[in-house]
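Researcher: Quick test of sequence recovery. Tokens follow.
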């Protein structure tokens, strides 16, 4: 079971709450939730590593990542404005490794909850 620690400002808007849920689903390996909440033409840029395009590549990448078990997710900040959002925090893995991350999201539209683009920065700490 993944421990979730979230900053108190995450409930200020529906989109911020969605970003929180999306990050929790990522930490828990909930591929069904993640795939249901991105567009079919999702573009995910993992900075310094690879670019993933389309729902099939997105789902395949999530399957690869699923074997990495997250012990704790700390969400330090979640931001949202119009059709953009962002989150940053840390991940502590079951094997003790720790990562700092920052994700930037582009939504289908200002009122839409489906993610169309993602840019992810991740470093081991």
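Model:
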């Amino acid at each position: 079971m993944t421990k979730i620690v979230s900053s108190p400002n995450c409930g200020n808007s529906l989109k911020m709450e969605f970003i929180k849920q999306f990050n929790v689903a990522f930490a828990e390996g909930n591929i069904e939730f993640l795939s249901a909440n991105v567009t079919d033409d999702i573009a995910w840029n993992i900075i310094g590593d690879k670019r993933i395009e389309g729902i099939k590549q997105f789902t395949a990448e999530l399957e690869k990542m699923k074997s990495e078990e997250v012990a704790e997710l700390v969400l330090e900040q979640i931001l949202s404005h119009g059709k953009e959002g962002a989150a940053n925090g840390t991940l502590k893995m079951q094997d003790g490794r720790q990562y700092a991350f920052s994700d930037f999201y582009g939504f289908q539209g200002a009122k839409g909850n489906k993610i169309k683009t993602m840019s992810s920065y991740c470093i081991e700490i």
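The longest strand covers residues 70-81.
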